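Cross-check.
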Amino acid sequence: MRTTSGMWVAVALAAAGCGGGGGGVKETSPPLPINLTVYINDARVSLSPDTVGAGQVVFIITNQASRAQTLTLLPAGTPAAQAVASTGSISPQGTAQMKVELSTPGDYSLTSTTAVQPATLHIGPLRPSGSNDLLQP
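Predicted model, tokenized:
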């Protein structure tokens, strides 16, 4: 059987393409989002859990108050003009969702449009990477 130099070139090129990741460092995935539940009634805003690590947070909100509410997230002790995120109006008995990337550790306040007691959220250090979690996006 006779081989040609063109065949050898094709074999060499195919072999060079195998495993061609460049040998670089594998980047890790960001932390998986964490869901927090928020309950608003006529007296206060409740939050569970109230302490999580930094990363993406998804607030799942239910308004059980007698009036429509708007929920605002802001760093503790700052004016409402410096809000991190805010929902639209949530009707009584309605629900809403708010996704926020919280990368700065510290305390945050969840306030509503009416004068009810706000909830406090404590953000700790960055949560671990989601790289090794199976069946996750």
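Helices lie at 5-17. The beta strands are 34-40, 45-48, 51-63, 71-75, 85-86, 95-102, 106-112, 119-126. Passed to J.P. for a second look.
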